[in-house]
Amino acid sequence: MIGEEVLFQPIREIGAHLRAKRLSAVDLAEMSLRRLETIGPRLGAVVTVTRERALAQAHRANQELLAGKDRGPLHGIPYGAKDLLATRGLPTTWGAEPLRQQVFDFDATVVQRLEDAGAVLVAKLAMVELAGGLGYNNPDASFTGPGRTPWNLDHWSGGSSSGSGAAVAAGLVPFAIGSETSGSILSPAACCGVTGLRPTYGLVSRHGAMALAWTLDKLGPLARSADDCALVLSAIAGRDPEDPTTGAGFFHRDRPTKRGRPGQRFRVGVLRHATADTDPDVEARFREALSTLRDVADLEDDVALPDFPYREAVGVIIDAEGGAAFRDLIESGRVKQLRDPADRVGGYAMLMTRAADYVDAMRVRVAVRRDLDALLSRYDAVVAPARNRLAPPIGRDFDGPATPAPEAPRPPAVTQAGNLAGLPAIAMPIGFGRDRLPASIQLLGRAHSEETLVAVADAYQEMTNWHRQRPAV
Amino acid sequence: MKKGRRAFLESLAAAPLVPAALDSQAVPAPPPAAVPDSGPDAVAEALAEAVKRQFGAYLDADELQAVRKKLLRNVERAERLRKAARLGNADEPVGRFEAVPPATTGGRR
Q1: In this structure, which topology does domain A4-236 adopt according to CATH?
Q2: How many domains does chain B have?
Q3: CA A83 to CA A125: how far, in whole Å?
């Protein structure tokens, strides 16, 4: 008999159980719902369990499979959606107390596409309020409380897609949808020890998703493996008339060809100062991961990111666009109901962003995009730790006293650079540090190079089992 | 006698063409005023005052102080951006605006 551990298995294997009738989609959904209801609250990972909708979808998926209709790899697979995706008739809270009663009368395009692919929506997952756009400074920044990594409940699950990372890591769902404006998929993937894929800007429709910064927002999967992420991305990517930024699609029906053979090795750049000002445990795991990657890739060390003010530009853009996106909440004073004190005041400063500063940041992006593409055209991926620190403890502000000396090398602003240029990235687990906290590597590639990034990550995951580890929850 | 509007505007238009030293009617330059502080602190202070005037009803003294600190960080951040970006006059921003509207609804709800 198949038990709840099936929720930790790769999507292809779960699908094989369904197709072989060793497991019904309804039983699978019930397992997921039960874990969401019992374990989810301990992790601060769940806003709404969508039991009724889930069971209806699971029944349909079952009937279709019995009738020989197969919608593909996600048919009958349960998933959770970050609670900034509109779902018809269900609360969509954006993680924010003043919006707890918000209900939309339509499904976000991503939710609709997953339904078309036969996936079963089992939960709306917790998130940092307003996706962290107003400048939160503490893990406790959602009306659902702090998100906790299943590996150590005293530590944060990362954000802003907190529940998406934790729910996958704890085997509540096989995959989840998160969003990233500047780090919100990669950070929870790192803190929770799962795989997260941030797609190229414009690859996945944001129709029906909360806007934080229109020119930075992206939606993408968090799952156990790169292959799982790619299967999900295949279902959600592609042009959507409702989101004019969308264009090309993405297809990943079969495993990519492993390129570990002589003459077909990957080419990977290791970013300069990748481990500067980095936790020693993260640095050690990163070095080990590089050693493993050498089996399938030629590594070039000391690859410098083009010199641009990435952090500053991203900050200005988020402040300007986020200030406009949440202007009603800020000007009405409703931000006073937000959880994190920093979020209650941050919006007022954002509204004062000077227009010329915003335009300058958007001017910088032209050169950033050009120079990053020139650099990345030489590699299949460049790599750095996904986070230079292990998951921070619950109950402590982020802006602690630890600031490196100004003359000391800083780690490359690879997350900000990638987001500023709209580039894809994958974060995946590479082992553990102290207190059983996961460490993670990120792979950054050219626009629309997801297939290559997945292939590199897949090759790494074929050689390791960090992505198969299960927390004791 | 009151100066007519046309004559007044004509005198303004001519002014830039006359070197001040040759202008017998030139008014002596006033003594130099103290240069106002225009650094990030002053800019943040001015923006904080704008926040106070517009949204003071929602913010207590501690919160206003927090806003001021964030504004100072933002102004300093923008200065770093400008210095590092080395932008020239012709460097255009990224943008998607198109004069022809898309055929579909084309927006995020």
Answers
A1: Amidase signature (AS) enzymes (3.90.1300)
A2: 1
A3: 5
- In tens, the pLDDT along A271-303 reads 999 999 999 999 999 999 999 999 999 999 999
Task: Please state the ipTM of this predicted complex.
Answer: 0.90
Distance from CA of B66 to the nearest CA of A (A): 7
Which residue of chain B has the CA closest to A355? B78
> Which residues 154-193 of chain A have a CB within 8 Å of chain B?
none
Predicted TM-score (pTM) of this structure: 0.91
Q: Which of A315, A319, A348 sits opposite B55 (nearest CB)?
A: A348
Q: Closest partner residue to B94 among A315, A319, A366, by Cβ?
A: A366
Asked if A211 has any chain B CB less than 8 Å from its own CB, the reply is yes
Is B61 contained in some domain?
yes
Would B92 be classed as within a structural domain? Answer: no
Distance from CA of A332 to the nearest CA of B (A): 9
Closest of A218, A186, A184, A214 to residue A201, by C-alpha: A218
Q: Has residue B80 been placed in a domain?
A: yes
Which residues of B fall within a CB distance of 8 Å from A346? 70
- Give the pLDDT confidence of A159-213 residue by residue, as tens digits: 999 999 999 999 999 999 999 999 999 999 999 999 999 999 999 999 999 999 9
CA nearest neighbour of A118 among A11, A244, A242: A11
Whether A357 and B78 lie within 8 Å, measured CB to CB = yes
Q: Residue B5: pLDDT band by 50, 70, 90 thresholds? A: low
What is the structure's pLDDT at A264?
A: 80
Q: For position A271, what pLDDT does the model report?
A: 98
Q: Name residue A265's amino acid.
A: R
Axis-axis angle for helices A280-293, A450-463 (nearest 10)? 100
Q: Are A4 and A31 spatial neighbours (Cβ–Cβ below 8 Å)?
A: yes
B106: chain A residues, CB-CB within 8 Å: 241-242, 244
Residues of A catalogued as catalytic: 82, 160, 184
Low-confidence stretches of chain A (pLDDT < 50) are 261
What is the Cα A101 distance to its own chain's centre? 25
Domain holding B52, by residue range, is 38-87
Instruction: Kindly tell me if the per-residue pLDDT of B23 is higher than 80.
Output: no
Which of A84, A348, A357, A416 to mutate to test binding with chain B, by most B CBs within 10 Å of its CB? A348
- Give the residue from B73, B91, B108, B109 with the most A CB atoms within 10 Å of its CB, the best one to mutate: B108
Q: In what order do the strands lie in the sheet with A195-198?
A: A46-49, A120-125, A78-82, A175-180, A218-223, A195-198, A425-432, A438-444, A381-385, A266-271, A297-303
pLDDT at position A435 is: 98
